[in-house]
């Protein structure tokens, strides 16, 4: 819903109704991920996309039916057949799409949710999309909830699981028993997490840093540039960064970690390739288990010198193994912009388990986890299986 939230909130605030279609599950090579949304507006407008064009016409019709009074519905769209006009996905994937009406009566919390998203405050929604009580919703903040899925036991189970998914920034379909049994079946609850954007902290106010900051912003990350030298660390040099900090890098990172502002979705790009900055910073970074990606720029000689200095500082080989150095994938990059693409590519591969192999050289599904059934059982969350 994040991609259409501004438009939806506008209609909602005016007291008008819209149909919201949301991808809640995918199989194989589906073109959009859970959470992708499309709107059918109060005067017939179509906003957003659930499949990149394959099934939007059919979803539009469902949305129109819901606006005319039909109940919320879950619809599956699969592989298209030999009929060129069949409703299906030519990519060979399968989408589950949930369509519901949104207005002040059916979704009274929407205004608060939109405000939280704008202010980068975490919030999640848990909506029953299959089984008894389709359309019921629980809105979950870190410290409170609003709404109900039908029973206190179900609310308690979903609340706890949703907070865990929100902390990880995950959006997925979770299966429960009808009264919240974590090993049960019969109830599909779609949890959509609106976690704050992942962070990219760029250390070193050099020309490459400006390109990396632009790339991070393009990817939807909240970008910070940090350097101890005030003459270089200026907002005018990094206009696309969300903030520019003048501080010794290791002190800044330690303070951010202490304040709880780095997590498993945080990426660090260490671009200074100067040991007086790099070594103290990496000594802190490599000992913070919650950081998702740590990359350091430099030549092979710089890399080996850096490793020796870090080992002398007591950093273990296991901790050093968390560092990507020299930073980036081998794209043959030369310019700062090309290097930024190389770094971003490695960050994406690290996040999703890719290996940088050209897709033309691969066999089978494009997406590495595409053979996994969408959604998970609540028991997996409760036992930490995922």
Automatic annotation (TrEMBL):
Start and end of every XdhC Rossmann domain? 200-347
Segment Disordered: which positions? 352-386
Which sequence ranges form a coiled-coil region, renumbered to this chain?
none
Q: Which residues form the XdhC- CoxI domain?
A: 11-78, 117-177
State one Pfam family annotation. Answer: XdhC_CoxI
Stored PANTHER family: ALDEHYDE OXIDOREDUCTASE MOLYBDENUM COFACTOR ASSEMBLY PROTEIN, MOLYBDENUM COFACTOR INSERTION CHAPERONE PAOD
Name of the protein in question:
Xanthine dehydrogenase accessory factor
Source species, please? Actinomycetospora corticicola
């Amino acid at each position: 819903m994040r991609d259409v939230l501004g438009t939806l909130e506008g209609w909602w605030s005016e007291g008008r109704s819209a149909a919201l279609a949301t991808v809640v599950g995918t199989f194989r090579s589906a073109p959009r991920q859970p959470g992708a949304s499309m709107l059918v507006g109060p005067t017939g407008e179509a906003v957003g996309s659930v499949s990149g064009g394959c099934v939007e016409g059919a979803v539009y019709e469902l949305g129109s039916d819901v606006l005319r009074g039909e109940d919320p519905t879950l619809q599956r769209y699969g592989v298209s057949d030999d009929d060129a006009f069949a409703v299906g996905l030519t990519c060979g994937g399968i989408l589950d799409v949930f369509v519901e009406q949104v207005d002040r009566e059916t979704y009274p919390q929407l205004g608060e949710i939109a405000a939280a998203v704008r202010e980068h405050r975490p919030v999640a929604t848990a909506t029953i999309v299959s089984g008894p009580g389709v359309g019921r919703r629980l809105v979950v903040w870190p410290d409170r909830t609003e709404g109900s899925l039908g029973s206190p036991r179900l609310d308690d189970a979903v609340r706890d699981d949703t907070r865990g998914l929100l902390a990880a920034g995950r959006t997925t379909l979770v299966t429960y028993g009808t009264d919240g049994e974590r090993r049960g079946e019969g109830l599909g609850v779609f949890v959509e997490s609106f976690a704050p954007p992942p962070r990219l902290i760029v250390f070193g106010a050099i020309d490459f840093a400006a390109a990396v900051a632009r790339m991070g912003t393009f990817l939807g990350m909240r970008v910070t540039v940090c350097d101890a030298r005030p003459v270089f660390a200026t907002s005018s040099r990094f206009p696309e960064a969300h903030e520019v900090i003048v501080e010794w890098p290791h002190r800044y990172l330690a303070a951010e970690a202490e304040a709880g502002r780095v997590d498993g979705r945080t990426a660090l790009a260490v671009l200074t390739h100067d040991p007086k900055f790099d070594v103290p910073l990496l000594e802190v970074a490599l000992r913070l288990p919650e950081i998702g990606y740590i990359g350091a720029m430099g030549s092979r000689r710089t890399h080996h010198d850096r490793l020796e200095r870090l080992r002398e500082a007591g950093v273990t080989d296991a901790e050093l193994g968390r560092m990507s150095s020299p930073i980036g994938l081998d794209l043959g990059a030369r310019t700062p912009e090309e290097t930024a693409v190389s770094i971003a590519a490695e960050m994406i591969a690290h996040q999703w388990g890719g290996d940088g192999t050209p897709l033309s050289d691969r066999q089978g599904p494009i997406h590495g986890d595409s053979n996994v059934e969408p959604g998970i059982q609540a028991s997996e969350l409760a036992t930490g299986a995922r």
